[in-house]
Amino acid sequence: MEYFLIYSAQIKNRGLDIGFDLYEPGHLLWLAAILIIAGLAASRYKKARPRSRSRVRKAFAVILLLSEILKDTVIALLGADMIEYLPLHLCSFTILIMLLDAFGPWRDFTGQLLAYAMFPGACAALLFCNWTEYPFFNYMNIHSFAFHGWIVIYFFMIYAGGEVRVRYKGLWQTVLAMIIVSIPVYIFNLNFDTNYLFLNEASEGSPLVIVWDIFGTRLGAPGYLAGIVLLVLLIFHALYLIYRILEQIREQRIWRARSVSSGRKNRKRALKGSERRDEYYVKKQG
Question: Is the whole model's pTM more than 0.85, yes or no?
Answer without folding.
Answer: yes
